[in-house]
Design a protein that fits this description.
By secondary structure, the chain is mainly alpha-helical. It is built from 15 helices and 4 strands. It has a two-stranded antiparallel sheet with strand order 1-4. A two-stranded antiparallel sheet has the order 2-3. The mean pLDDT is 89.
């Protein structure tokens, strides 16, 4: 029988330096794994990574496209971060994103060209948040009042939302479908009054709104009484009940807020670069990528911003890889590797590994001192 040479100890409160270092090491480890994979397939990893950096940040157009790709990821990352902070496992940001897009595009089409942009744009934004919150509520209410597992319900609702969007465009003559296109069904363009004005290449106000919402989420969760109660519920529901906090109301509120963030991502994406309920432009797995963003950001709403930009850069660089003969699926592999290493990094943030002899020696010294 062998004795373990190392002991895993709870670290307690990790330092800020370690909390920043581990996510960076996770990204570096994922790039190394991706580089090994590229080398095994005969590609030069350094050339591929250099090409990706140039595509994402090497020109003003590349930077704007990267920020456009990052915008919905900021909000879907917030959706996951806010929910996971309370141990509410909302895996349905993808479906909530799509419902936000359906609501926003629908209200913009219904209001038409006659309404002023100053009225239409705020209504479109709010509609996206409402759509996402309502879709999250379908899973939240059974979770709060019946104890139904939210992982299963939110995951299944993703597929229902996707099929609903496809039905509106491909399987019906709904108002969302463009009646002027007969060759291949596509989404009806929303009126110009519902579109965000562009100010940097194709970049529009949706990026600024997403950043502002991330800062608002940081303040709400970290600096308010409501956020304190949310953190207490996440740490211990029994403690929260003893302190007089309504656990069901807090879970329901966090669930709806999480869904609203994801729905806003869909609404802003429709009112921004997409301009229509177009399944080919919306079915991109942005809700699932938001989980990676939240994990790498360690559920910090402010840290979600740079992480989303990193993921946006990967998404933006992916299509350009085809020009050098590299399959764009390498981006999916890198994102998956980043998630795996980010989750693994959480273990080292929460624990430390020490030699068994050193631990026993310290214990002996403490016993002798006592």
């Amino acid at each position: 029988m062998t004795t373990r040479r190392f002991i895993v100890e709870p670290r307690g409160l990790a330092s800020v330096r370690l909390s920043l270092l581990i996510p960076l090491i996770s990204v570096l480890a994922a790039l190394i794994v991706g580089g090994l994979f590229l080398a095994l397939t005969g590609e030069n990893p350094f050339s591929v990574y250099q090409h990706m950096v140039d595509a994402a940040f090497g020109s003003s157009r590349g930077v704007s496209e990267t920020l456009i790709s990052a915008t919905p990821l900021i909000l879907t990352g917030l959706a996951a971060a806010v929910a996971f902070k309370m141990l509410v496992w909302n895996i349905g940001a993808e479906g909530q994103f799509l419902l936000g897009a359906i609501f926003s595009s629908g209200i913009a089409i219904a209001m038409g060209d006659g309404a002023p942009a100053a009225l239409v744009i705020p209504v479109v934004i709010v509609a996206g948040g409402i759509g996402g919150a309502l879709w999250a509520g379908i899973a939240a209410i059974p979770r709060v009042y019946l104890g139904v597992n939210e992982i299963i319900t939110t995951l299944m609702l993703n597929f229902i939302a996707l099929n609903l969007m496809n039905y509106l465009i491909f399987g019906s003559s709904s108002p969302w479908r463009d009646p002027e296109v007969s060759t291949f069904p596509t989404g009806r363009p929303i009126p110009d009054s519902g579109r965000f004005p562009e100010f940097f290449n194709r970049l529009d106000l949706s990026f600024i709104i997403a950043v502002a919402l991330a800062l608002l989420a940081w303040y709400l969760v970290g600096k308010t009484r409501w956020g304190f109660e949310v953190r207490v519920v996440g740490d211990s529901a029994d403690t929260a009940r003893y302190a007089g906090i309504s656990v069901p109301k807090k879970i329901l509120g966090v669930f709806l807020l999480s869904g609203a963030f994801a729905g806003l991502a869909g609404g802003l994406y429709v009112a921004g670069p997409v301009g229509a309920l177009d399944p080919r432009s919306l079915d991109l797995g942005l809700g699932f990528t938001g989980i990676i963003v939240a994990a790498l950001a360690r559920l910090n709403p402010v840290a979600v911003i740079p992480v989303a930009i990193l993921m946006g850069a990967l998404n933006n660089a992916g299509p350009s890889l085809q020009s050098i003969g590299v399959p764009p699926e390498i981006v999916l592999m890198l994102q998956g590797a980043i998630l795996i290493f980010a989750v693994g990094g959480e273990f080292f943030i929460a624990n430390r590994i020490r030699p068994r002899e050193k631990v026993l020696e310290e214990l002996s010294e403490e016993v002798e001192a006592a």
